[in-house]
Predict the 3D structure of the following.
Amino acid sequence: VSYIGQDCREIPEHLGRDCGHFAKRLDLSFNLLRSLEGLSAFRSLEELILDNNLLGDDLVLPRLPRLHTLTLNKNQITDLECLLDHLAEVTPALEYLSLLGNVACPNELVSLEKDEEDYKRYRCFVLHKLPDLKFLDARKVTRQEREEASVRGAFMKVVKPKVSSEDVAASPESHYTPLPSASRELTSHRGVLGKCRYVYYGKNSEGNRFIRDDQL
């Protein structure tokens, strides 16, 4: 069943009603899907094409026990681990997966800052989570990749640091320093007077107190 380029934001109810009971291959590419609600009518799917949509990290698939091919190229998926955990649960027969064009798949299609090493680590982590895959993206899974994934795949997860709103609002010049403002210039050699909120009275250490001349 092909429903390509219809600009639909959700899977039409009539599509599942009319075709869900017999469809083995469903192509919903080049639409505006943000949700896969309605896919539960397609219980016999073996291939699902969802390329060029607006699917994000809240993607939810129904359980599809026969699905062996899933392509999610050029969507808005950023959380790789969340997606892989979900696929491991609902698509136990999955053998072919393609995630090219998503932030979760680090390569030059997404960012020029990514290189082949980033992509190798990504493949290793995916195969650690989904060890039965035979193809990942446009490349067949090799025995060497499978062996490396079983040994090191769990350590290949890339965690992006969380940026707080305060960090975003702060300008590059507003770096924190414990020194008074007058001492921040490296070329300034003037003395600096600072104030302290704490006062030590020396009540428990009278022997160390300074004694004035008129107290002798």
